[in-house]
Structure formats: structure tokens, C-alpha cells
Amino acid sequence: MVPVASTRSRTKSCAIIVALGEICGLVARIIAVANQKGGVGKTTTCINLAASLAATRRRLLLVDIDPQGNATVGSGIDKSALERTVCDVLIEGVPVAEVMQEAAVGSYDVLPANRDVTAAEVHLLGKPRREFYLRDALDDVVDNYDYVLIDCPPAINMLTVNALTAADRVLIPVQCEYLAMEGLSDLLDTIRQIRETANPKLDIHGILRTMFDLRNNLDREVTAQLVDYFGDRVYRTVIPRNVRLAEAPSFGRPVLFHDKHSRGALAYLALAGEINRREGSVLSARGAGGG
Ligand SMILES: Nc1ncnc2c1ncn2[C@@H]1O[C@H](COP(=O)(O)OP(=O)(O)OP(=O)(O)O)[C@@H](O)[C@H]1O
Ligand SMILES: [Mg+2]
User: Fold this and answer.
1) For residues 132 and 53, what is the distance between their CA atoms, to the nearest angstrom?
2) Which positions ≥6 away from 115 have C-beta within 8 Å?
3) Which of 35, 88, 201, 261 has its CA 20 to 30 A from that of 243?
């Protein structure tokens, strides 16, 4: 039998190793990209942020947990020819490493999805600890990455709850339109509930304004509301409406490999820079004894 004292000291050593890993940037930041509103740019953000962060030499895993499989297709992977998907990870317990694939271009890994993933949602509903399946599955691979991005479906369902339970942070893309703020309250309630139950560390990473047009009065008004409510959690970077961003998925590649000089490509590179800087200052604040 293991003496109690040695079990305790081992637990303590594990906590110290995790803390050191966080300070040194060895533990991946898991970011769920979520908004239950459809078509706000979640998938476009996942694909292009993954490629842009990879271009800054960060190691990236993109988890597609949406049965639409758009992040899978936009990463150049044929969703109809998949032998295994994130569904097998969630239902059968197949290791993530056996299911993930490399994106066709862009130097990041993808845990792919297609409509089979709908079955995983139904399956999870009947399970105990049903919100922890994705978190448990990612545990084995998370140390191999600097960031894990999770593309959520446009609903607050068990798949989104699994993503928010696995994540450290949530990136919320917002299209600056009429009633944009109203739509956010359900998501903020869900984040609050998950923080109180399954995942106390969950927090908002940032609010990303997508399909933005500064000439539009409404975009300026919604920006003012967002800044009022979320303060400096609204990313400085805005993603403009840009046709190259809309075209790139049909070629199965991030915009950086479709038209690297486009405004869309430059915006997502700027967002990657902003996120890296934000993460860098969090790490140095932690290293200096901050939170
Ligand atoms: N900045 C942009 N400029 C132009 N088109 C864009 C931009 N961002 C996204 N789009 C287009 O808008 C549509 C919706 O974007 P996207 O699929 O990323 O949203 P989503 O939030 O993931 O949608 P869903 O909720 O269905 O998963 C797509 O056709 C995409 O190509
Ligand atoms: Mg999507």
C-alpha cells in the first residue's frame, strides 16, 4: 500500500510540475471558439487562426466538434472519406492520436468531424460525467501543443458543453449587427454555469469582431456596447469582411495559403500576434507571482 504521506507529496509534486509547465509555456492553452448564433465566423476564425498561429511557430491542434464538419473541409480534409472522427473519440474512447490528421496545408493538426458527430451528442446525453468526455480525451495529447482550438457548433448543446469543459478560455466571435449583445447573454450564462460546476478555470479570452466594416454606423455602435461591457477583453484586432476569407474554404486551405496579401489574411495574422502577446504577458505575470 502506498503511504499517505508519499501520495500527498506526489500530488504536490504534480501540481508544481503543472504550475512550472504553465509558467514556461509548456501547457497548451485550450481555447473554445463559441457563439450559439450561426454564421458569425467561428469556423473561419478557427481555420485561419490555426494557420496564423502555426505560422508563428506555435504547435496547433484544431478540434472540430461540429457535425457540419466545416473546419475539417476548410483544412483540406475530405469529410465524407473519414474512417474515424471525433465521434469515435467520444463514443468509443479511441485515442485522439489515432484519429487526428494533418491539415492539407498550414502545419497544424486536425481532429476531424462529420455528421456522425450528431450520434456522439445523443450518446453523451445518457452518460454520467457526460460533460468531461472531450477534456479526458485531450489529456493524452495536450502536452504536444501550444494551443488547442475547438470549433463549436451553433448551439449550446452537449458538444458545446464538452468543449467549454475542456477549455481554459473562450473566444467569442461577434458579428456587429442589431441585437448582437442580446444573443450573447445565453452563452455568458452557460459559461458562468460551467465555471461554477465542471470547470472553475474557464474564462473569456476575448471578443472578436468579425465581418467588420468601420464605415458602418451599426458596427461602431455595437463596438461601443461591447467595449462598455467587456472592456479590454474586446480584441483590438478586427476581422474585416473580405471575399478571400469566404473563398478559401472551397479550396480547402486557410486564407494565408490562398491570398497571403489579402486583408483577411493580414487580420488573422494580427489576431495571432495579439493572442501570442496576451498569452506571453499572462505567462510572465504568472512567473512574477501574478495570477
Ligand atoms: N470576415 C469574413 N468576410 C467574408 N466572409 C466571411 C467572413 N467570415 C466568415 N465569412 C463567411 O460567412 C459564412 C459563415 O462563416 P463561418 O462558417 O465561419 O461561421 P460559423 O459561425 O462557423 O457558422 P456556423 O454557426 O454555421 O458554424 C461563411 O460562408 C464564411 O465563408
Ligand atoms: Mg462553423
Assistant:
1) 27
2) 67, 68, 69
3) 35
Q: Coil, strand, or helix at residue 145?
A: coil
Residue 139 CA, chain-centre distance (Å), reads 15
Which CATH number do you get for residue 276?
3.40.50.300
User: Per the domain annotation, does 150 fall within a domain?
Assistant: yes
Q: Which atom of ligand 1 is nearest to the CA of 247?
A: 31
**Pocket around ligand 1: residues whose beta carbon is below 6 Å from it?**
38-44, 66, 68, 70, 154, 210-211, 239, 241-242, 245-246, 264
pTM of the model: 0.90
pLDDT at 6 over 90: no
Kindly state whether residue 291 falls inside one of the protein's structural domains: no
Predicted confidence (pLDDT) per residue in 124-153, tens digit: 998 999 999 999 999 999 999 999 999 999
Pocket test for ligand 1, best of 33, 37, 43 (most atoms within 8 A of CB): 43
Look up the domain containing 221 and give its range: 26-282
Q: Is the residue at 21 inside a domain?
A: no
Q: How many domains are contained in the chain?
A: 1
